[in-house]
């Protein structure tokens, strides 16, 4: 029966501040290298937000055809490039276009494109606004363009959400697979480092205004003082296990369990219960006992109250195992790319399961909580399962369990 079909990851595509492509990304993550830098984008120099994770060395024309580039924003360029890499990695060549769907998550949208067109409107008039303004800024733009480009006619959708939506996209993909869809391209990519987008972020509580990249984002550290934004993300090819095995595809990991809750914006103390409830739900769906979690990829907001709530949530669910299980936060060296952040964590988690390596948390040298936070150097250990956590600034909590392929 379709309801029992298992959803597995067969392809990964990454466009991130610390690497374009999975190999470069994993090398940087594994070594704990940071990609945080001072923001040098035009029109941003006067803003109090000084540090971010910026994607460098990315030429959209090398990944996406010109006819798509002119009608899309940078966040969709990232998504289309990552989707192409994920499909190439999986080797998927679908015979039935109705058997492949697309689901992406977005919390920022096409701010750079939208700002440019609105400036044209107010400086030159409506006749100077291009026809693609109506679609390029929209949260669903990446889903639409990926499906059009690939000719995919299966179930498509977008999770318009705060950061945790990047994990929720995998639940939608796995659900579609269980209901009979052959494959789903899923994940998230964002591009919020433009003046308009950055101004919109200035009201977020917990945003770091540090000027030194190595001190700007220190989750779980005694000196934690907020987080920094980032751009980029990751897309994945998610397939039904039996279909993937039948065509001889490499199965990289199983999407074993997911759950989500909502506890309200910036109520970090309350996120303890919400996140714990999500973790319990994800473990239950994965049929996993708390002490069977081998590594945790933490949300790691970098706000002391939020970090404490996350550590306590893990203790609530995992019990004594919470102090023993390795915990890591690679995003400390990447930044938080809104919905793209947990998607990048999923990429890192799948690669960690494959290689038996827990990557370190960049910049952090001490942990102020009862966690076995991996810092300094990567840790080699046997990994069968990974728990990925995410919380959004508006109050969403999400947990995803990944299981290593046998």
From TrEMBL:
Belongs to the thiolase-like superfamily. Beta-ketoacyl-ACP synthases family. It comes from the Bacteria. Residues 4-404 form the Ketosynthase family 3 (KS3) domain. SMART domains: PKS_KS (SM00825). Coiled coil: none annotated. One of its GO terms (biological process) is fatty acid biosynthetic process. One of its GO terms (molecular function) is 3-oxoacyl-[acyl-carrier-protein] synthase activity. Keywords: Acyltransferase, Transferase. It comes from Kitasatospora camelliae. This is Beta-ketoacyl synthase N-terminal-like domain-containing protein. Gene3D superfamilies: 3.40.47.10.
